[in-house]
């Protein structure tokens, strides 16, 4: 069970959460309560970190941001399970619709035979009592047919609803894995992909997955000088640049692959101003070249402030590159790329460092 706090403890959380919730721009509904309950209980460090960043400098969360927080850090919906439930419903309805259609056909056949018998009997009049019984049977059968056809119509429309539900689940699945600000994959999606890479058998160590971590330089100064909203714009612009370069790299990989299509590079936002690019196949030189293109593209980009014709000071990014080695788990692989990134920060920023496995 997700929440196992005692009555007294949860009442305490309620008292702490309410004033925080009322400050927000989102309505007071169970979703926003779940977000702020988890915040005050301190049980979800990643949520707390994200909320602290979002509410820095007195910012408040609107409806969309509250839902994004919920989806990314609180919601436990397993989208695959949601999909299976919708599929299950759909199958049940399919088989009910088929049974109803079959029952309808059978009752129609019975109705036809009954009508023929009634014709016969009326041309050779039976005693009145028997004729009445037959007429009643005929009416009853027609009613059954009518009811079955209604049922079938309702089943058809339920099918339509299930179809939209399935689309909704798929959409929610997509959103649950996307970073709401930049549209890149979020930390959750990245962790899943990284885990998949780690679990896959490694055929050739030289072609093992590579990880590129990037972190915008002096981002706090950008926020402090131009405001948080402008900081968000910078994040979106950098994300778009990284995504474009990652996609170009994927195209090059596919063009270079003989026969087999290689998996695309995944670009994700894994923290406030931190990004991760995972190349499922390739080699360290390719990853380094991609990181270098990312660095130079970000540095060459120009972002204008809305209220000014002037560009702001150049935005740069530091990057670290590492390749997975045989003994790695997700954590050791990530940490090596992180060490490479911090080496870039310490050698002056706006550069790329590659760290080979020890
Ligand atoms: N606008 C905006 N700012 C964010 C977001 N997430 C994190 N930040 C800010 O990013 C800044 C990160 O600052 P630091 O970790 O000190 O790093 P830095 O200033 O980039 O310095 P170096 O990394 O050492 O070059 C903090 O001020 C955070 O508040 C966000 O979603 N939007």
What's the layout of helices and strands?
Layout: H1 7-23, H2 30-41, H3 45-54, H4 63-74, H5 79-123, H6 128-176, H7 187-199, E1 210-216, H8 219-226, H9 228-256, E2 266-269, E3 274-279, H10 284-300, E4 317-323, H11 330-346, E5 352-355
Parallel strand pairs: 4-5
Antiparallel strand pairs: 1-3, 1-4, 2-3
The structure holds guanosine-5'-triphosphate (GTP).
Guanosine-5'-triphosphate binds at residues 53, 56, 181, 215-220, 223, 228, 231-232, 235, 272-273, 345, 349.
- DSSP E strands, number: 5
Helical content stands at 55-70%
Main sheet specs = 5 strands, mixed
Oligomer: single chain
Using only C-alpha atoms, the radius of gyration works out to 31 Å
Count of spatially separate domains: 3
| Low-pLDDT runs | 256-261
Strand line-up of the largest beta sheet:
2-3-1-4-5
List of distinct ligands in this structure: guanosine-5'-triphosphate
What is the fold named in CATH at topology level of the largest domain?
Alpha-Beta Plaits
Q: In sequence order, what are the helices and strands, one letter per element? A: HHHHHHHEHHEEHEHE
